[in-house]
């Protein structure tokens, strides 16, 4: 929302693979940005574009109308919001706090309760689309929180994403992202089974992928990650260790809700194996390598 054509000042915390391009898109759209990152060197690129840097999260909160966090895991979010130099120590009435990390629905609800107690509002707004979507501003954004806060934040979401859906109350965005990560993980595993089976059968996996893309098995994951597998190109767009973290959240949430998720548990176990082999920093599409190894097929 703008008042008299003046855009609100946005604080942005977390400038990793996803956060940095998201922040850069906001700067290019004309939003004044104040940034913080645990590794100071990661702030340099956005500062060159016009952002101001700070020394801790609370300082970001001091000078911003809206604060966005994009962090790796639930403990990181807990520290940034509730630590000694955390956001909640300085939050003001009227501010909006937007956590776009992928974390437990529990902490999303905790942030919402604390923000409301201080006269502020919060949104949990995790994203899907990977580093490509972050760079191109085409992320899918799943939002939990009040309609009022969603409407105020909507112009910022439009800069960062294309498919923007208000799901429901606080925590609903994180539940939706958990569902998304289940589907993505199991789909990567299924594509891995298919391409490994094709290759072991002496059938060209590139032609198999091409044929499947024209039928009911077509998907964005088959398009992008299927090509990664064919090229044996696994530099991270989304790291394996982070997707394993997301499946931890999925299994934990499923346990809370007494929901059976057997395939999620299976893929989680395969990711555990890959992390034990030191592959956690590779792209999550490298999951296919676990299937290939069981078939005595090299993925390197």
List its traits.
300 residues, alpha/beta, Rossmann fold, N-(1-d-carboxylethyl)-l-norvaline Dehydrogenase, domain 2, nine-stranded mixed β-sheet, 13% strand, elongated
Describe the structure in your own words.
- By secondary structure, the protein is of the alpha/beta class.
- The protein folds into 2 domains: 161 residues, 3-Layer(aba) Sandwich (Rossmann fold); 119 residues, N-(1-d-carboxylethyl)-l-norvaline Dehydrogenase, domain 2, CATH 1.10.1040.10.
- Helices cover 52% and strands 13% of the residues.
- The protein contains 13 helices and 9 strands.
- Strands 1, 2, 3, 4, 5, 6, 7, 8 and 9 form a 9-stranded mixed beta sheet that branches.
- α1 links the parallel β1 and β2.
- α1 packs parallel to α6 and α8 packs across α9.
- It is elongated.
- The termini are far apart.
- The model has no long low-confidence stretch (mean pLDDT 95).
CATH evolutionary superfamily of the largest domain:
NAD(P)-binding Rossmann-like Domain
Q: How many separate structural domains?
A: 2
What is the element string, with H for helices and E for strands? EHEHEHEHEHEEHEHEHHHHHH
Find the CATH topology of the largest domain: Rossmann fold
Strand percentage, roughly? 5-15%
Distance between the termini: 49 Å
Which class do the helix and strand fractions yield? alpha/beta
Label the CATH architecture of the largest domain.
3-Layer(aba) Sandwich
How many strands?
9
Output the radius of gyration: 20 Å
Number of helices: 13
- Biggest beta sheet summary: 9 strands, mixed
Mean pLDDT: 95
Share of helix, binned: 40-55%
The level 1 CATH classification of the largest domain is: Alpha Beta
